[in-house]
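Consortium newsletter contribution from the modelling node. Members have asked for a concrete example of what our holo predictions look like. Here is one, prepared for the zinc ion complex that several groups have been discussing at recent meetings.
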Amino acid sequence: MALITYLTTIKFGFGEIAGIEADLAGLGVRKPLIIADKGVVAAGLIAGVQGQSATLQAAPVFDATPTNPTEEAVEAALALYRQHGCDGLVAIGGGSPIDLAKGVALLASHDGPLESYAAILGGIPKITASVVPVIAVPTTSGTGSEVGRAALITLKDGRKLGFISPHLIPRLAICDPELTLGLPAWLTAATGMDAVTHCIETYLSPRENPPAEAIALDGLKRAIAFIEHAVKDGSDREARKEMMMAALQGGMTFQKGLGAVHALSHPLGGLKEVSLHHGTLNAVLLPAVLRFNEPEAKTKYAEIRRTLGLAPETDLAAWIAGLVNRLGMPASLSQMGLPHAVIPAIAEAAVKDHSSATNPRAASAGDYAAMLEASF
Ligand SMILES: [Zn+2]
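And here is the predicted structure:
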């Protein structure tokens, strides 16, 4: 077990969830709203966590979080929060419930509309310390949202925007690998590849932050060493623990900024005509983006190869594509069901995404369209 204070307080280890009643009291939360989705409810995880705490046993549960959180869902959860006179949030699940909880925590303490707080629309300084407390309890190993300052929410007009502020970081993250033991293989692979992508993109980001780079490389090393074990045997406790740490480390380095993979997967995740899983998208897009970035990131690619114990001549993009294949994941966007006609609009949206600015190589809409075609 470990108690870490870096960005926020993190309780990490098997069995840590047992202390959640005291953790709520410590934050002064008496009437929490639980934010979840149908999947975590069906998996019995909500009942399991509620069983650890009388306060949570009595708490209302919002379980209608969509795969990609929406403004409508934030408003519905906020109505439940107000109806029950809540004073804090406990998000249990993957990145979607945690991001949704951040949106609710923001609007529970700040006047709407949600759009006015979007990073790209100048909203960052409008978010103050009055954001209500969130405890994040991840049940997947990938998102890093439990320690991240961003929430990705799709507005009513279809734009998937980032809401970013240090005040949106959950006040406490309880990372208990026990809660990931039942995660199905496909979701272990998809969320795990999200963690891999976070570590790679934050490491490659040109913002200067050596401590964050060291964390990103350590997280990448753990994820690559254990992702196949975790997918093959979900009950492998060591693999589950290492994947949860890798995901946490990916989230700890978000402050460096992500890159072109996320600039593309954000608008793709906002599509209404097809629901695409964030981690799966990243896995499919990563090889083409690595190939595009290579001319600007040769030294860092060499460091990644050294960290992973790969031969100096290894083609990283092809190596990642091989890993994605071994994990049994889709090999292309077309296999995921993406309609080809959306490529120009997604390429335009990627240029405007907040993650595009920290890609190591400047990418135009034409470059993004080429990366989408290469991944199609
Ligand atoms: Zn991600």
